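Entry 14. Ran structure prediction on the chain below.
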Amino acid sequence: MTSNDVDLAIVAALDGDAVLLALMPGGVYFDFAPAGRDQFVLVELFDHGDEYQFQFGTDGAPAFERFVYDVTAVEKAAAAINGERARQRIHELLQGVALTVAGYDHVKTLRTRYLRYATPDDTDRANRWTHRGGRYEVVVAPHTP
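Output, structure tokens:
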């Protein structure tokens, strides 16, 4: 059981969906995508915190871990052709859905912010990268036997 297991569960929930991958065939990646991909999903850890609300076992483990992820469909295009549909699919896959994470009990997964922005392409200023998605808060509790 590590915090990385939560990161992997988010990516797995998205990467295992055929509908999302049809919209974003470049794949799902944590932090950055490989070169040459024009349509993909990025998962980025925005914030994390351990919550020690009460004594939790003798090992000093937190009562809860809170993760905040920016999850965006990224597309190199003048307009987000599939980006908006991919954003909607990401929301369907994450909002209120219980994640399966080894060593943890899922508490909640909720969108806290809608994300929509564009950035210029560094190699060709005539193009831009559109980003559509959301900021999702995931709260888990370390599983106690």
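Residues 26 and 35 are 10 Å apart (CA to CA). Will compare against last week's run tomorrow.
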